[in-house]
Amino acid sequence: MPRFQTILAATVAAFSLTGAPVLADTVVKACPPGLAKKDPACVPPGQVGKSWTPDYVYVEGDRLRGDYVLIPEAEWEELSLVPIEDDSVYVVIDNQIVRVKESNLVVIEPIRILENVLN
């Protein structure tokens, strides 16, 4: 039994000394090597000019990012939103009302920007 404890202690000591570099090498990197060398790094060429700022205007085909608020069906008439029959819903994101597909949050139709309505 003492031999087992010695081997176990040596193994633990070896992993504790080399644990961090081993773990660092096994981390999956999200950025492909070709994009890592670009400027700005890790941004595909077609996305360079686009930025996700609070004043971003969502267009058809965009995927929602960040927090959004689902508009209950009871409030659709109050906001003059057209009733819908498919699996889409209305949400508010970044002061915009958009209709999105419920399953994958892809914008089907931008409805309006609330700042323009309130002013």
Summarize the SSE layout with pairings:
Blueprint: H1 2-26, H2 33-36, E1 69-70, E2 88-93, E3 96-101, E4 107-113, H3 114-118
Antiparallel strand pairs: 1-2, 2-3, 3-4
Query: How many strands, what sense, and barrel or not for the largest sheet?
Result: 4 strands, antiparallel
User: Approximately what portion of the residues adopt beta-strand conformation?
Assistant: 15-25%
The CATH homology group name of the largest domain:
inner membrane protein cigr
Helix percent band: 25-40%
Would you kindly provide a written description of the structure presented here, covering whatever features stand out?
The chain is α+β, with helices and mostly antiparallel strands and about 120 residues long. It has 2 domains: about 1-50, no CATH class; about 50-119, Nuclear Transport Factor 2, Chain: A (Roll). The chain contains 3 helices and 4 strands; from the N terminus they run ααββββα. It has helices at about 1-25, 35, 115-119; strands at about 70, 90-95, 95-100, 105-115. A 4-stranded antiparallel β-sheet has the order 1-2-3-4. It is elongated, with a radius of gyration of 25 Å. The chain starts with a helix and ends with a helix.
